[in-house]
């Protein structure tokens, strides 16, 4: 399925694939800096790379939370990254109208976890013909994702992947049940582990989501160890000043070391 993406590289490396970038398009400078550095790292490590950034953030805790720089402006930045750096792009969509709009600019449409049961959204996304990355709802069992995939497939599009981003068992934390990864793989689609969102601490009294970025390496290693197909890491040159999800993003300076370790672990796992 990934071989249908424009500009995708290193699919013969037997590595996991990577979806990575800043949480949201904040500026052209940040997007290009982040994409260029990730591209350099993944080219050297032979990791298939898809650049990720949301052009709009719809799920916000507070009305004054940053939601984006404007749809057309952000999507054009993503298009420029794709064409200039020769890398495929994934972004979130939230409505049927957004599916049609975003499909003109990007290669993978991502369905946010809270929206994974929205039938009309899944059908509209499917009809674009793009790869559809459905994030597992924090409230769903892994096996229930079969029905989300069925909505896409029965709408004429078999290009589906799942992303696990943890399950909410309490009010302010998320837990990853690693049994869910092989369970979703048995449904028949690639499975991605969203490392950084799984470390969010939502529903804080301040209205600003917290996080535990110090556990990124731990979560990532565990995902690779159980055989996840891809990993999802949001990263930023300076998470402390990021306009969205700064509390759980990885500092871009740490990405090279982390991916180097994960590639070595992957080599060990596939040799067993």
Runs in which pLDDT lies below 50 for 5 or more consecutive residues are none
The order of strands across the largest sheet is 1-2-3-4-5-6-7-10
Query: What is the CA-based Rg, rounded?
Result: 17 Å
Shape: globular
- Calculate the mean pLDDT score and round it: 93
CATH class: Alpha Beta
**CATH architecture designation:** Alpha-Beta Barrel
The class by helix and strand makeup works out as alpha/beta
Number of helices: 8
| CATH-level-4 superfamily name | Aldolase class I
Instruction: State the helicity in percent bands.
Output: 25-40%
CATH fold annotation: TIM Barrel
- In total, the number of domains comes to 1
How large a portion of the residues is in β-strands, by DSSP E?
15-25%
Strand element count: 11
Q: What is the end-to-end distance? A: 26 Å
Q: Give the helices and strands as they follow along the chain.
A: EHEHEHEHEHEHEEEHEEH
Short description:
With 272 residues, the protein is of the alpha/beta class. The protein has helices at residues 28-45, 71-85, 96-102, 119-127, 145-153, 180-185, 216-225, 255-271; strands at residues 17-21, 49-52, 89-92, 108-111, 131-135, 160-164, 191-194, 200-201, 210-211, 230-236, 250-251.
Helices and strands, with pairings:
Layout: E1 17-21, H1 28-45, E2 49-52, H2 71-85, E3 89-92, H3 96-102, E4 108-111, H4 119-127, E5 131-135, H5 145-153, E6 160-164, H6 180-185, E7 191-194, E8 200-201, E9 210-211, H7 216-225, E10 230-236, E11 250-251, H8 255-271
Parallel strand pairs: 1-2, 1-10, 2-3, 3-4, 4-5, 5-6, 6-7, 7-10, 10-11
Antiparallel strand pairs: 8-9
Helix pairs in contact: 1-2, 1-8, 3-4, 4-5, 7-8
